[in-house]
Specification:
This protein is mainly alpha-helical. The chain has helices at residues 6-15, 22-36, 46-54, 64-74, 85-96; strands spanning 3-4, 44-45. The protein has a two-stranded antiparallel ribbon. The chain is elongated. It starts with a strand and ends in an 11-residue tail after the last helix.
Length: 107
Amino acid sequence: SGRIGLRRLQQYASLLGFQGSDADWAKQYWALCARYGWDAAQGADAEQFAAFVDDENCSGYCTDRELQALLVQLASQPLPPLPARSDLVSELFSALDVGGGGKLGVR
């Protein structure tokens, strides 16, 4: 439908830390609809949702970093293929070899 309504916005709110009951959320949703001019039966369209997420004076606001974290959390992408073990060990060694001498010492 190109809109996100009561339940999907509740999912978003829960990701941001909302812990109230369904009844608590319904009250919050109606308040958001009134504040942002959303049709409560249909929910927010993409432009309205963007205004909600960009409103620094609202509980729906997210920084760019928070938006990125939410996308990662919602993603259902599988892990990338695992590199060969020897490549992993070599990469780990390079990360630990802070001195760049090619040897891991006591330090």
